[in-house]
Amino acid sequence: MSLVLYGALMPFGLGFVLGFAEDCFAPCAAGAALGVLLHSFGALSLRSICLLCALGAAVAVRWMGAKKLAVTALAGCGTLVGVALCFALGGNGGAELVFYSAADALLAAAMGLCLRRFAPEQPGAGMLLVGAAAAAALGSVQLWKLWPGVAVCAALELYLCCKGQAKAALAACAVLGAALCGAEPAFAPAVAGLSCATAAAAVLAHVQRPRAVMLTGLDQKLQGIKVNHKFGLVVKNVNSYQNSFEILIKDLTKWKKDGYRVVLLSASRTRASRLAGDLREYDLRAFCPEDAGRPVAPGEIMVTYGKLHKGFEYPLLRFVVIAENDIFAF
């Protein structure tokens, strides 16, 4: 439809014929040819004639069973440049026609390659390319005092911002804005304002987007909640030593050998200092920190004041917290 609305967008018609799937390239070629005819109102320009010849060559090669882009692009783009060169040698159009036709051929080949690698029905470069064609097509249409191209682009970017898709909104703003300016240079101030508004809206939407972290012991499906990322974390309870200092020393020695960081919480600072001294007698690197910001190095035991009902262990992080209840409670 975009090609019918604005057939003077030379590269899009040929590029889509080169890049679209087998069930789409023929209707696309027909729409591009019809767009050229409607836009010229019966007075075909030399560039339009070159494009029509290129479209015919590309469609003929694809109908003959050509699957590779290189073969189709050589037929379509080669015909485009070749016909322009014939006109130039015949005294019509000159070097300017050859230059523009070569530029159209390069752009069409690049579009075809992009559409072959990135499906237009999937979010990505292919979809942006189709959107650029639609924006450029609508850019030349005016309904009373309304410009549909600008309105559609603004609505799309607002939708993406509301969905919190900041990167997609900014990418669409850049590509669609360039297409609008290509179709109608007078849109440049409007596109600049729309770009600034989109950037601001994308940042605000990203900041205001709600986030939550849910901890659960079972992997389960949560109705009504969209889960963006899942992370597994192994947590173990600390054994109850039941007043057995020997078993505690045995575990602390093993953790020291494995490079664990151990934090042992005591009910008072005096008891914490005394307990740290007792542990050092067993060749353990225990200390009672005077500075609360001192980190615990691997293999060390920090004995400090604190209250905790039950200790825990993070095996992946090699980190253990032992509560006083774990040592002395039965």
Task: Characterise the protein shown here.
This protein has 330 residues and is of the alpha/beta class. It is built from 13 helices and 6 strands. The termini are far apart. Helix 2 packs antiparallel against helix 3, helix 8 (148-162) packs antiparallel against helix 9 and helix 8 (148-162) runs parallel beside helix 10 (188-208). The chain has helices spanning 2-5, 10-19, 25-40, 46-63, 69-89, 94-117, 125-139, 148-162, 166-183, 188-208, 245-257, 269-280, 324-328, and strands at 236-237, 261-266, 285-287, 300-305, 312-314, 319-322. The longest helix is centred in the N-terminal third of the chain and has 24 residues, at 94-117. The protein is elongated, with a radius of gyration of 35 Å.
Keywords:
330 residues, six-stranded mixed beta sheet, 58% helix, disordered N terminus
Quick description:
The protein is an alpha/beta fold.
